[in-house]
Specification:
mainly alpha, 3 helices, about 90% helix, elongated
Length: about 60
């Protein structure tokens, strides 16, 4: 059932990927991995900053 739901999107993604050669796909994959790492690091930073500022607000209330 789930695999059937992915048949159409899977074919669409395959069509997109077929437009690129292996070297181009390597560059795209590298970019996506690096961008994900940057995004994850920034999410971690924002979470830590949010927790710190949240703790400061709680301390101000006390």
């Amino acid at each position: 059932m789930i695999s059937a739901a992915w048949d159409l999107p899977g074919k669409a993604f395959t069509e997109v990927l077929e437009r690129y050669g292996d070297a181009e796909l390597d560059v795209i994959a590298d970019y996506l991995h690096r961008a994900a790492e940057v995004g994850g690091a920034q999410a971690d930073r924002l979470t830590k900053e949010s927790r710190r500022s949240g703790a400061a607000i709680v301390a101000e209330r006390d």
